[in-house]
TrEMBL record:
This is REP element-mobilizing transposase RayT. It comes from the Bacteria. InterPro entries: Transposase_17_sf (IPR036515). It comes from Mucilaginibacter phyllosphaerae.
């Protein structure tokens, strides 16, 4: 999705809040760096201005705010809940009109589940 991300994550050792914090920090820095260095991106100045303006509204930021500060975690305590959420994740791009079939969305694990092909991001399949 162009405006948000859905994840199913777990950890054996560690705190999920720490993992999300580090994931957001790392990806925000990498994406902002790419944006700053890509002079061919026609929306670059506007996007950086928007992220900087958002960053000024929150004292936790150094300059920019790329991700929202909050998350919407849902504990998946049963296999049924996990399957329901996985189905929701895979069909979200279809519902938004981005694609007609879940595996067509480039940044989804749906390809791994719907076919013998592998998607862009390595996944551990849920059974």
């Amino acid at each position: 999705m162009s405006s948000h991300i859905h994840l199913i994550i777990s950890t054996e050792n560690g705190n999920l809040s720490d993992i999300m914090r580090d994931l957001k920090r790392h990806t925000a820095k990498a994406i902002l760096k790419e944006m700053e260095e890509n002079i061919q991106e026609s929306r670059r100045d506007w996007m950086l201005w928007m992220f900087k303006r958002a960053g000024q509204r929150n004292i936790n930021n150094e300059v920019y705010q790329f991700w929202q500060q909050n998350n919407h975690p849902v504990q998946l305590s049963t296999n049924q809940m996990m399957k329901q959420r996985l189905n929701y994740l895979h069909h979200n791009p279809v519902e938004s009109g981005s694609v007609e079939y879940p595996p067509e969305y480039l940044y989804s694990s749906a390809k791994d589940y719907y076919s013998e092909q592998k998607g862009l991001v390595p996944v551990i399949l849920l059974s």
